Amino acid sequence: MPLFRPHMLTLLRVSLFTLALLILLMPAHPGRAQGDFSLRFYGTGRNGVDRVVIPLDAPPRPVDVGGDFTIEFWIKALPGENAAAPCTPGGDNWINGNIVFDRDVYFAGDYGDYGISLAGGRAAFGVNNGAEGTTLCGRADVTDGRWHHLAVTRSAADGTLAIFVDGRLDARGDGPTGDVSYRDGRATQYPADPFLVIGAEKHDAGPEYPSFRGWIDEVRISRIVRYRDLFAQPVAPFIPDADTVALYHFDEGAGTAVSDASGAPGGPSNGFLRVGGSPPGPEWSNDIPWIRPMAPTAASPSIPTQTAPPPLKPSPNVNAATETSTPTSGESAPPTLQPLSDTPAATATPATREAPTAAAVVPSPVAGPPASADPPFWLLGVAVAGLLLAGIGLALMVRRKKE
């Protein structure tokens, strides 16, 4: 009588082959979710590169918020890599920081504009309604090499601005009221105007307005004020709801396309990467907020309304956190367009930009190859089943030998 029946040998061989194949296909990082990536910027945002570009108009897109809104994202920056001077409250001074979000328009903004930067390692958030503008300065250092959840909120009715870091109120103050969206169908001679730009100053106005260096992940833009007090910071990627108008997981992992996962009516508000510089950025990174738990942050005291330094001239319109600026959104009349050279530009007056160059023209997005992804976790279950089958086969072999 043969030790092994033919069907038993066949079962054993298939089980062992399946197990070996599944071990080869298992993800290299089983603790990381499928497709989890972030974007790494290198602060080389000149000549229209090292940035994410998201169209706002033609046709109008939901990402063009201008009433109540919340912009939130995860950010990581290494110490010393964003060297802009400390933030100065008031006016459009946010433009002097290492720019993270730029939704500026050149000259008077019709409805208005806004932006977020890092100044002295702290968040700076500014809003202008075309007639007056203000900058709110945060207090928490977010350039310590750790991931931080950063959120800014704005109320259209009373102009209240707020900055939250890791779920805690970091700064709050008064800003301009009204609609600050990009006016649909607005004519402009500056090609970068009808875009939201992440990671760089959108007009390439000069080295006085430096780009951001670090990582950004999980950007959500909402049409409401989501946070007014202490809240639990997210522990997983966002799930869109009815008030989400744009959501960028940055999980494509390859190519230049950036997809909006919000599902907002009138969307999607897709964007694209403009890659370049030395080193070339932005690049896809597997450094994400969810890999390692972040160290707990000590409880911070309540933060009073921020007080700006006294204005140079008396003005009845200046309040505790608002400095009235000129109707030109803090920007001077542009000279004749000239290409930027590698020679540093002359020092500009703070909160005053030179005219954008032809290099700031934003081309149509170029579709990239499909995103890469690790094998899904259901393979783990199949591998376990294969291991069990192999074990059963081996047990049967031993039993038949004894017989």
Cα(first) to Cα(last) distance is 10 Å
Structural category is alpha+beta
- Our count of helices gives 2
Proportion of strand residues = 15-25%
**Main pleated-sheet profile:** 8 strands, antiparallel
CATH architectural label of the largest domain: Sandwich
Give the mean pLDDT. 77
Helix-strand string: HEEEEEEEEEEEEEEEEH
How would you describe the overall organization of this protein?
This protein has 403 residues and is of the alpha+beta class. The chain folds into 2 domains: 6-26 and 376-402; 34-374, Jelly Rolls (Sandwich), CATH 2.60.120.200. The protein is 11% helix and 23% strand. The protein is built from 2 helices and 16 strands. It has helices spanning 6-25, 378-402; strands at residues 38-42, 51-55, 69-76, 98-103, 113-119, 122-128, 133-137, 148-154, 160-165, 168-174, 195-198, 213-222, 244-248, 257-258, 271-274, 283-285. Strands 1, 3, 8, 9, 10, 12, 13 and 16 form an 8-stranded antiparallel sheet that branches. Strands 7-6-5-4-11-2-15-14 form an 8-stranded antiparallel sheet, with no helix packed on it. α1 (6-25) packs antiparallel against α2 (378-402). The longest helix is centred in the C-terminal third of the chain and has 25 residues, at 378-402. The protein is elongated and about 90 Å long.
